Amino acid sequence: MGLFDRIRRVVSANLNDMVSKAEDPEKMLEQAIIEMQEDLVQLRQGVAQAIAAQKRTEKQYNDAQNEINKWQRNAQLALQKGDENLARQALERKKTFTESGTALKASLEQQTVQVETLKRNLIQLESKISEAKTKKEMLKARITAAKAQEQLEGMVRGMNTSSAMAAFERMEEKVLMQEARAQSAAELAGADLEQQFARLEASSDVDDELAALKAQISLPGATPNQQQLPPETSAPKSNQQSEVVDAELESLRKQLDQM
Question: Bias regions of kind Basic and acidic residues — which residues (predicted)?
């Protein structure tokens, strides 16, 4: 392609598609097919005109042959009638049409070759246009894929990966903290429940022991091993025992308060 052809193609492409860039591959392919289709239309018109001219020349040639045959018969008829002068005139007219027929035959042969050449060119151009359309679709798909890949790579380059990962790490840390708080609350709840049951068991043991102690003291006929209250002998001794009991009770209360 020459320089001027390239300039003409770029200008034509810009006129047909003002949105696209001048050197856009997809637009250039589309413009090339448009130009090929325009050439196809012109070539079809040229083929049609050449065929019409061929038919016209062929008719003229056939007419000339008919005239040649006619004047040939006329010359023979004139000789048969004994009119040599009329036969000569008929042969002169035949000669004129013969010369014209010879020229028309040469022109017809040339036009036939030209028409056949134009037909072959037309078939080749139609085939090239079909092939160009197929290639255009393939290249268009490749261009689209390349643009998508380029856009994707640009998006990847523009992403702040470190910031995104930091955000994920912060969220993960929050989730871990929340899970830890939930687990701690569950453990505390379980421990508190165990302590409550332990207190209940301890309280039950004390109550049972207290009840047993009351039964030993209040039941008559206790065994020698059971603790019995000493008999009352005199008031001073009773007071002394009372003071001892009070001291023991006070000591027991202090121990209980310190627990």
Answer: 250-259
The Cα–Cα gap between 244 and 230 comes to 13
First to last CA, the chain: 109
CATH code at 3-159 = 1.10.287
The angle that helices 3-16 and 25-80 make with each other, rounded to 10 degrees, is 110
Q: What is the pLDDT of residues 237-257, one digit of tens each?
A: 556 666 776 777 777 777 766
pLDDT tens digits for 166-176? 777 777 888 88
Identify which of 30, 10, 22, 7 has the alpha carbon closest to the alpha carbon of residue 132: 30
Report field, pTM of the whole predicted structure over 0.90: no
Using CA atoms, how far residue 68 sits from 62, 99, 101, 202, in Å, is 10, 10, 8, 148
95: closest CA among 67, 58, 76?
Answer: 67
Residue spans of the domains in the chain: they are 3-159, 168-216
Where do the H-state alpha helices sit in the chain? Answer: 3-16, 25-80, 84-158, 161-218, 235-258
- Give dist(CA 66, CA 200) in Å, integer: 141
The mean predicted confidence, pLDDT, of the chain is 77
Query: What is the pLDDT confidence band of residue 33, given thresholds at 50, 70 and 90?
Result: confident
In this structure, what DSSP letter does residue 230 have?
Answer: P
| CA-based nearest residue to 67, from 33, 98, 25 | 98
